[in-house]
């Protein structure tokens, strides 16, 4: 991303060398900067630690001489100080200069004095003896009539001041609290804050003055006093409860935008001030209902206000959540705050995710059930590549259950054999009757799976221990189910066991239906030991089993049922749709429905029922169902409405077939357990990982309420994919900047660009003394790539594409701006371009635009947005009768694009002599927002000498977007099958006729197909060529459009969102 | 609380360092080396916050330059993250399109700006105009 800067910086030493004579001139012109300049130059040229040491030691010995020489002027001394700063910054002791820093602060004037103070604050520490020498200077400056000197003195006092000398300056500083200038009052408050930090007793008598500062008419002074209050309230909150009202009022004013606009940061009013206030409120409201009640309103408002999608809003939101969970709880607020976290954790931005997870820890501490909605995210984050994200999530998982360890166990189980030690611990833990947390089900199956490692003989022993555990009352039924599964597994390894028989006896009469079911199962398995061995093989958990996924063996059963009048099976989405169409209106979040209802909250929920109704064998629909129920593909369907499905049709003893079993009614909740148990013992390959995650999610929160245990299923993969956007954007940017710089333009030769580069560095070498020095007009543009603009920001891509054309302003080059031209070509009559190519009339195309020219030829290009590709036609025309017959055009292969020459129609008739067309079809291979296609034309001059002309064309993602014409029904199906989604609220610039205008914008500019419009909601679909679909659900509310994208591609929604946002905000 | 504020480039060269709690000069170099190492080892898919010893690092990359802020647990990471950007915006305004070289040649001024914004490890001013006011006056007075 920063290739350019890197390149230029590493090239710096070379540049310095080349410019040796020029450098001398600079030194002569700016003598004060010369020494510093050469030091900086020296530092940039360093290649090794050894060189650095040599350079700095040399510098230090020079400095030693200079600073102690009596003839050294203060101006030179100031420069010496900066050089000394450099030496110390690089880790070399420059203590001989410390005293000179104090001297400079004492004797210097303005900037020299400031640098003196600065050096003191950087060189010395709190208890440094030299500091005492500074006190007189500070006292003098505090009394100065020059405000700047007073400011400096106050600044240095608030940075570093000897504790024992506070009394010497305290009265002076107290006086400054009444100063007429806000900056002095503010700095005085900050100086007092420093005293409070290092000597709280000394400022006790002026607490009343702090209150005055809090009520200061200036925001800055008030904000400064908050540091003092935060500190004091932290130490002793009860003493400041009476101020709660004031803090609340201040926060209300800030949140309400009552501050002067220059306190805004990216149009968010004084974010850091808000955060500070929220922190203070958090301290005040802790364990204090009455105080907390005062702030509920403003906190509620803060949560609501934070709608702007900027990082800093999230910082505020985070702090707000923290405060809400710190103070005396108010359930309504707690819920709102917990819900708010969704914005964080579901964000593709990794930093926000981190923040969201951190916020979740507060939620879980207070009320774990409120975190239920985010459980899938937590589980996903356990697998996150970033260890700090994992770290953040781990304590949360710990909080509710020790799931992390279990998770690791399960994970290991699938990849490596469990080490004895680990197993031993698990075994010990479970067997010693350690209170098994209600939701730690995994040791059971782990035991069942791997206890054989401990030796054949122990199988019985383990069973005995498990048996004891099963009988113990302290174990939850959930855990018991797992334990039973382990026993079942072990039984297949044990030769014979009385215990097992006893166990079966005991549990076949158990009140717990689930346990009863397990017992029956085991009993029947025991009757056919051979089958049991096949079914529960030793150490086969990682191996795939052949499973009749289509459940063809049930066809007979289905036919029978149907003939008896049973309703045919309908897949989940179909039922969903029927339900929707009955309601006629779209819900607020129509597709969220399927997730929330698929939990086990409702026992009759569609997802739950579909488990049972799968027996109809409608296997064709299975794929679609995946997203909203447990992934059952490939799982043996052992359970039907009536319970265990007996194997009637097939008695071949196939490994995949279930043994005969009495039919036993079970409730749906057991399905969960049984399915998961099967998952453990008959593991299948497909989406093993995903299933585990879901499993974990449900088990993680099972102790909290098994009701919504599989919420958010099917979204398992979304988050991890989304992080790629950043890097892509960067790539694009760096590629663009590179091309911007590297591309020689016809009028400005490459030599000229070198010249101005040099100029730029010279400029810097002079330490910018001559800031007025006229720069090349291009200079600033190029600097753009050098400046500290942060690259990852996708938003800035737009700036970047703008800077490219302006580089070529001199050479009359124009570059495409696809969105505009699309719009233009829709409106314009196709008169100009229609003469060029037949084909053009059938499709949308851009205007013919000249991309480059020189004296002899000119190259123009236009885009044709064909249904299946983007066609770019370059038209090379000669100005001075140059023969173009031998001219050819080559396109440089671009990273994200597939370019194919279309030889089809090359020369339009009649123009053969002076114009030649080249046609290329372009495909975007990887979604990206923008790209650049460059190439060159080779042609023969009269004198048979060949020449070359380079050009480039910008491509936008939108060039490759085509409408996707599908029905509402298909939309519904597709919607459910896509895992990647992105949501965003966008403010529209004009609110009148909102829906239709927004629709029109999206339809025309992005080429969405409008699938359906219902009320204030719209369904749109498009595809990225060749065939990556992306769906958009949008809903207009007042002047806000809620955009919700889904796609099979992980990055496309992000890019489209970016484009849509741009379009909507512009329109 | 902010413990330190660093500007280090990709090559690991420190361009600015400010410590709000005293750290021995020898230990600083070690710390800076480790800090930049951990920043460089991060990929784009990883967040901008790193746990380092008993504090957290919040970093942001601008071209080849990393700005790394060490904070304690009490600090809101995102607020610091945005504070870094605010700082860069201030620099950008003062230097009009700031580059690494601007910082190198004006180390003192960058420090003066930072001193206006952070004192004793607390963010004390974020209003751009107010941050730059004292420095602009100094510049003006020194010129005349």
UniProtKB/TrEMBL annotation, chain A:
Domain of life, per UniProt, equals Eukaryota
Biased composition of type Basic and acidic residues is found at: 645-654
Q: Where in the cell is it found?
A: Endomembrane system
Q: What is its main location?
A: membrane
Signal peptide (UniProt feature, chain positions): none
Q: Does the keyword Protein transport apply?
A: yes
Keyword Transcription regulation tagged: no
Q: Keywords, A to Z? A: Golgi apparatus, Membrane, Protein transport, Transport
Q: How does it sit in the membrane?
A: Peripheral membrane protein
Ranges where the record places region Disordered: 645-667, 721-752
Q: Where does the AP-4 complex subunit epsilon-1 C-terminal domain lie?
A: 962-1065
Q: Report the family membership.
A: Belongs to the adaptor complexes large subunit family.
Q: How is the quaternary structure described?
A: Adaptor protein complex 4 (AP-4) is a heterotetramer composed of two large adaptins, a medium adaptin and a small adaptin.
Record protein name field: AP-4 complex subunit epsilon
What is the species listed in this Swiss-Prot or TrEMBL entry? Erinaceus europaeus
Gene that specifies this protein: AP4E1
From TrEMBL, chain B:
Tell me where it resides. Answer: Endomembrane system
Database matches in InterPro entries:
AP_complex_ssu, AP_mu_sigma_su, Longin-like_dom_sf
Q: Whom does it interact with, and what assembly results?
A: Adaptor protein complex 4 (AP-4) is a heterotetramer composed of two large adaptins (epsilon-type subunit AP4E1 and beta-type subunit AP4B1), a medium adaptin (mu-type subunit AP4M1) and a small adaptin (sigma-type AP4S1).
Task: Give any Gene Ontology cellular component.
Answer: cytoplasm
Predominant place of localization: membrane
The record's keywords, sorted A to Z, are: Membrane, Protein transport, Transport
Query: Does the record's keyword annotation contain Transport?
Result: yes
Q: State the similarity comment.
A: Belongs to the adaptor complexes small subunit family.
Record membrane topology:
Peripheral membrane protein
Question: What's the name of the protein?
Answer: AP complex subunit sigma
Domain AP complex mu/sigma subunit, by residue range, is: 1-141
Chain's role: Component of the adaptor protein complex 4 (AP-4). Adaptor protein complexes are vesicle coat components involved both in vesicle formation and cargo selection. They control the vesicular transport of proteins in different trafficking pathways. AP-4 forms a non clathrin-associated coat on vesicles departing the trans-Golgi network (TGN) and may be involved in the targeting of proteins from the trans-Golgi network (TGN) to the endosomal-lysosomal system.
- Going by the entry's taxonomy, the superkingdom of the source organism is recorded as Eukaryota
Does the keyword field hold Transmembrane?
A: no
Biological process, per Gene Ontology: intracellular protein transport
Protein's organism: Erinaceus europaeus (Western European hedgehog)
